[in-house]
What we know:
- By secondary structure, the protein is α/β, with parallel strands linked by helices.
- The chain has helices at about 5-10, 30, 35-40, 45-60, 70-75, 115-130, 140-150, 155-160, 160-185, 205-210, 210-225, 240-245, 260-270, 280-285, 290-300, 320-330, 335-340, 380-395, 410-420, 440-455, and strands at about 60-65, 80, 90, 135-140, 190-195, 225-230, 250, 270-275, 305-310, 365-370, 400-405, 425-430, 430-435.
Amino acid sequence: MTGKELLLKVLKHEETSKVPWVPFTGVHAGKLVGYNATEVLTDGNKLLEALLEAHKLYRPDGMPVIFDLQVEAEILGCELIWAKEAPPSVKGHPLSGTDEIPCMCTLPEKTDGRLPMILEVMQKVKEKIGDSVALYGLICGPFTLASHLRGNNIFMDMFDNEEYVKGLIQYTAAVSKRMAEYYIEAGMDVIAVVDPLVSQISPGHFEAFLSEAFTDIFKFIREKRSFSSFFVCGNATRNIEVMCKTNPDSISVDENVDMAAAKKITDQYNITIGGNIPLTTVMLHGTQQDNMKYVIDLLDQLNHKNLIIAPGCDMPYNIPFENTIAAQQAVHETDEVREMLKNYESIDEDENIEVEIPDYAHLNKPLIEVFTLDSATCAACTYMMDAANVAKEHFGDQVDVIEYKYTEKENIVRCKKMGVKNLPSIYINGKLVYSSIIPSKAELFDAIEKAIEALK
């Protein structure tokens, strides 16, 4: 059985003797052949070379062709900030100052933006390895795309301008369907609707604004004879069940979600679940043995039906390639690796890292601490950090704002010392105020004003 056949059987919810492996290599694939993130996201030849190298090294059963949630935003008029070790981020939001909803006549065409390059690479990858590997086409989900267009205003709109949000989501869902159609035509076996900001809203808001749109998207993908994945980053625990009710073939989650608890819910709906090897503590900063052990432990605690092993999200650019190979070995050669690790105990190097926690009781002004995976690469983190930056612009020297990125070892230690459980989160004066919920401007301003008053 090929890796593709294995993965597709799992997405059909059939019993299999093995669990499939899907590394979300993203721009990390460029690292394998010496190209930076911008190069592999803009040059089709370099992207193709990187994908073929990732295929050779990581032996995937399924793999994405491109992991960039800004492709649609760029086409629709968002300016991008490019980086060498991460996908681009959105700068400026064309709908931030207007209540207009784009016309359906502005849906992406195959000739728009980077689509010609992406579609060509998809077709070439399909020709070269598509018989043995299930190929993923990743599209930006309707809520994250709406946020790219509208900015942080979208979170206030959900309370003050409900009809506008519904209209905007109707438009962005149409964009999602158009992109899915193009990618399926290019040979993609699985369409992953990647919507990290879903983790930042309540189940009530999901059902009010998003359920109908996602249900329609997954129905559309199924009618096109492809498979679907509902891919969400962050602490989506509270939304797993409402996500299941939209009827995707699979759901992908990251390390913020208890995989065993989530699988109990997805099993009730006969939906495959994928994830959730930690991107930083294990894949980026861990050893080969740490990666093997995490995968073995995950396999040992979960029922293998309807299960895919994968990184929690888009893999950081600088992950050591030997760590990903180790994870792959644990999936494909589980018994041998388990025997190899029977006496292994991980070494906690964090004990040697010193971090200074602020003296919160004696601050001169409120300290806003934003704990993120990395606001340059994680969409939910980007909008959480944007909210804090807007507050800084408003309050000026009355407050201090700092971001702690989980990609840095010192900040991993800081999170442990402070008991930070979910990313992104906002703390004010050392106290958790928002955890995996992006606040509206009014909510955050009110919390800061109270903190200012408390220090007087």
